[in-house]
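Dear support,

Our group has been running a series of protein-ligand predictions, and this particular one with thiamine diphosphate is the one our PI (initials K.S.) wants archived with full inputs and outputs. We had some confusion internally about which version of the output was final, so please treat the block below as the authoritative record. The input we submitted was:
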Amino acid sequence: MSVMSYLGAIGAAQREAMDADERVIIIGEDVEANVYGTTGGSGKSRASEGDFTQKYGRNRIRNTPISEEGIVGAAAGAAMTGLRPIVDLSYSSFLYMAMDQLVNQVAKNRYMFGGQASMPVVFRSAMFYGLNTGAHHSDRPYPMFMNVPGLKIVAPASPSDAKGLLRSAVDSDDPVLIFEACLLWGSKEDVSEEEFWTPLGVARTVQEGTDVTVVAISSSVPEALAAARTLAEEEGVSVEVIDPRTLVPLDKEAILKSVAKTGRLVIAEPAHRTCGAAAEISAMVAEEVFDSLKAPIARITAPDMQIPFSPALEKQMYPDRVKIAAAIRRTVGVAQRA
Amino acid sequence: MTLSHDELLEVQRRMLRIRKFDERASKMVKRGHIPGTVHTSIGQEAQVVGATFALQDGDYMSGNHRSHGHPIGKGAPLGPLMAELTGKAAGVCKGKGGSLHLADFAVGSLGESGIVGSSIPIATGAALSSKVLGRPTVALAFFGDGAANQGVLYESMNMAGVWNLPMIFLCENNQYALSTPAHTVTSGVIADRAAGFGIPGVRIENGQDFFAVHDAVKSAVDRARAGEGPTLIEVVTYRYNEHSEGLRLSVDYRNAEEKAEWLSRDPIVQFREALIADHGFTAEELDALDADVLREVDEAVAFSDASPFPEKSVAFDDLFTDTTYVETLSRQERAAFEQKEEVPA
Ligand SMILES: Cc1ncc(C[n+]2csc(CCOP(=O)(O)OP(=O)(O)O)c2C)c(N)n1
Ligand SMILES: [Mg+2]
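Confirmed final output from the archive:
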């Protein structure tokens, strides 16, 4: 074990994957100079030990032009013909530039061609919300891609998961989009230095509880945990916190079982409300375990509004511990103590 | 580059296969035997086979909606292609692709594309994997004059150029994108655009001449295989049929004179004449080939007829390699998959 940051864990997983398989390449803008911090060595300079370009060479560390559509398409073609690319798309709003390739080629090719293609490619992108980067850089677009059959969607919320899920994504023969939260980049915990793989499609019960289930996604996970702590201390409410980790495939069983046990559900995620992951999970719970519900389902999401620049305006847009705690109180029917 | 007697015969066979296959497909669309529509390559056979015949086994290609010629030109068997057009279980894509999305990986066909321009970077990626893995293979992207105005082409040409990838960009300039004449929407000459990327650009004015196309593509393929990078080739050609079968436009965007002029330079007739005049072929042997290809197309249709339609459950196969995904679908979705009555609410 060693203490690793979320970003450091991603770098470690990339290094392990590059070492494990010659067919793995990293392709993206500014990856050579390690601008986004996941292709570097121990120090800041190119000479530091472990720098990816030094270690693996330019054949496997492909610094690209600013051509997202071309990059994504070329990565797809490369994956169909023997490589296992990790594509670093940097900001997740840049995925829109490559929408055609992601939706029409990456997601559809295997299916359309009757299983002739396999598409072992990982698209990593960072969601820069909450960092005053304004509307063009603050997106959380993962629900849009949940709507595209053929893409696996991952949103790690801890350093261990960032590492283990990335290894599984690289080893998957199917395309995986990983949405990383910049707000979590600096979060730290003990992470195994050994190789490990966190399976796709398996939720993590972050904390067990009996009164209410909180399904939290991405940076909402630490906020939900903080809310749970407050409620346990102040109101004696026992909160179960579940992090789905993978949104496609979604570990429906874990969520349904938990809600069947607690009878109450709060869902927190940083994406927009309409057709978000929270909407999907709400519908699933209502369809499958309606009889277990003791209270209406509550969603804490970003509103259906663009993200404003000013810190004074942006802060209120996402789920935080206060909003999540308030939703839990409403759901379990306790009033906040004065 | 001289081709042997057998190779020349094979060229004519493949051009005839495209012609006869597409003529048959056209009829089948009109009779309702093929669902939806098809886009034929009739008139463009020399352009297609001139390119595919310059490739080797193991080389890759991607294509577009005018899709049957490419795999046929690369040597794909006709039966599974025809069965795909009819939506049958024995289709090359198990009935999930149809005419617009043919792919036959066995001959390096990585997929045709219903989205204009969208498959170009797929070939770029195949060229990239050849390069990274040190394989001697090359990749060729077929696209139309219409697709030549999609931005992704230039992203791909730039990457192929700067990375010196073993790739051929092959523009099938049949002079129209659906109803739109290329010159009315295209600034400058398509082949000249290569210069901006520092790669060779070649324009074949007579794309009805197999030899002209083949020579140009062969030298581009040789360059690519030798590690000398990509080439853009623009082949001027003409489609005889309407953009897609069954389409009837009230505006006559191509005039009769123009059409007659191109019909007088038919690629298959020209090639046949050249085989007899310059390559020692007899009319009898080429007549026998015509008959043989007609028989092949009959057999392809019989193959398709003999195949059942796919089981309903096949709709739920092959989204992912990981088959456990289907279990994560909701009860309602699974009911359809299992062909059972939906769980009553
Ligand atoms: C992105 C996209 N835009 C528009 C269309 C509709 N469309 C299909 S084929 C076509 C014309 C394509 O022309 P060209 O690339 O020259 O190929 P050709 O049909 O002439 O072989 C159009 C407009 C499409 N399929 N995809
Ligand atoms: Mg055209």
